[in-house]
């Protein structure tokens, strides 16, 4: 076991090869890895959630074109405490508790200028090859992408801002508003945050599908009005069940699985003139009833991560408009990270949280 002063990290070397190893404690600079004018801070990490992408890099060594070629620290759903600030940092100081936005632009390109910095092709992103993540004891990050947490927001809530941001961005792109009828496909962590955000944004009714009865029960707990446990139904049959429960076809479908049959069901289910948002990522090529969507003017929109969501999420958590605490079902100390990853791989619970500060395992 590493001493508290050492920088224990969870590192993937190649497909199937996940290790706990010590790395040097980084030094924050006045001008860092990112924009020349973005000074850095050093954080003592507290809570880091395990994402499906972390497990995928461990199991397969790649996601699409992002390939693990060199050892990479995993983790991007994170919060911690500032222990040292670079000389150019004015808005944060040692002792501040912060949530970390993992994507930081490296240049002021057209996407940054238009406010859609998540689309910048050169963006730094934690735990996306070749960029290291923050599943470790100590980590340095751009100070401008660290957001101070109010006293009534816990570290774990701070870490959950990352998946919550996916829901905020997806529901904004979908146009969820007062009275919307929404179909969420997939009741994993991302499906659940979309339920939370859709209800908060005024959705009148939300129906959610999944294979797992336990995950659908969790969806009911966080606000889903109706659930459908999918078994052997065709996409058209799933769409029919959605319409039957809602009493109409949904205005909006948020597809969170990336599975071909689920995307098909999403198109069939969405009312004419409605919107389907693709959140889940599956195979590069899928077969979908595109003519059905076209002739009914179903808009199909993609999302890539998120942008400009951390301040919104913090305000929602601080005001108690959204409760993400039920999403955390398992906690492990950093030293037991390999066990935590196995738990996530087996699909147990919802969100597995790793506690990186050996002196504080509180939420």
From TrEMBL:
Any one GO CC term of the record: motile cilium
MF terms in GO: L-iditol 2-dehydrogenase (NAD+) activity; zinc ion binding
Keyword Hydrolase attached: no
SUPFAM superfamilies referenced in this protein's UniProt entry, alphabetically: GroES-like, NAD(P)-binding Rossmann-fold domains
Subcellular compartments: Cell projection, Cilium, Flagellum
Protein origin, superkingdom: Eukaryota
Domain Enoyl reductase (ER), chain residue ranges per copy: 16-354
Cofactor: Zn(2+)
Record InterPro entries: ADH-like_C, ADH-like_N, ADH_Zn_CS, ER, GroES-like_sf, NAD(P)-bd_dom_sf, SDH-like
SMART domains to which the protein is assigned, alphabetical: PKS_ER (SM00829)
GO BP terms, alphabetized: sorbitol catabolic process
Annotated keywords: Acetylation, Cell projection, Cilium, Flagellum, Metal-binding, NAD, Oxidoreductase, Zinc
Gene3D superfamilies: Medium-chain alcohol dehydrogenases, catalytic domain, NAD(P)-binding Rossmann-like Domain
Family: Belongs to the zinc-containing alcohol dehydrogenase family.
Protein's name in the database: Sorbitol dehydrogenase
Species whose genome carries this gene: Mycteria americana (Wood stork)
């Amino acid at each position: 076991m590493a001493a508290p002063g050492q920088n224990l990290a969870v590192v993937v070397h190649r497909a199937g090869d996940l290790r706990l190893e010590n790395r040097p404690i980084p030094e924050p600079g006045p001008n860092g890895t990112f924009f020349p004018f973005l000074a850095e801070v050093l954080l003592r990490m507290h809570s880091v959630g395990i994402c499906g992408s972390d497990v995928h890099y461990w199991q397969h060594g790649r996601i699409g074109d992002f390939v693990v070629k060199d050892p990479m620290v995993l983790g991007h759903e994170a919060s911690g405490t500032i222990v040292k600030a670079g000389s150019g940092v004015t808005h944060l100081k040692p002792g501040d508790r912060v949530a970390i936005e993992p994507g930081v632009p490296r240049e002021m390109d057209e996407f940054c200028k238009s406010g859609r910095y998540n689309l910048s092709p050169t963006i730094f992103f934690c735990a996306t090859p070749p960029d290291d993540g923050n599943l470790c004891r100590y980590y340095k990050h751009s100070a401008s992408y660290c957001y101070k947490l109010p006293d009534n927001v816990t570290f774990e809530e701070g870490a959950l801002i990352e998946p919550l941001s996916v829901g905020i961005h997806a529901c904004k792109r979908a146009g969820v508003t007062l009275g919307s009828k929404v179909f969420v496909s997939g009741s994993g962590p991302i499906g659940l945050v979309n339920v939370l955000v859709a209800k908060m944004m005024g959705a009148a009714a939300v129906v959610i599908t999944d294979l797992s009865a336990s995950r659908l029960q969790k969806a009911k707990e966080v606000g889903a009005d109706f659930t459908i446990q999918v078994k052997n139904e065709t996409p058209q049959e799933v769409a029919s069940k959605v319409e039957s429960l809602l009493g109409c076809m949904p205005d909006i479908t948020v597809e969170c699985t990336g599975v071909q049959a689920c995307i098909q069901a999403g198109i069939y289910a969405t009312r004419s003139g409605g919107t389907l948002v693709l959140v889940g990522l599956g195979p590069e090529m899928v077969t979908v009833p595109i003519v059905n969507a076209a002739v009914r003017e179903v808009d199909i929109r993609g999302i890539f991560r998120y942008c400009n969501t951390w301040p919104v999420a913090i305000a929602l958590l601080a005001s108690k408009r959204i409760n993400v605490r039920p999403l955390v079902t398992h906690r492990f100390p950093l030293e037991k990270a390999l066990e935590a990853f196995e738990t996530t791989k087996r699909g147990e619970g919802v969100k597995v949280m790793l506690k990186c500060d050996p002196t504080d395992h509180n939420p």
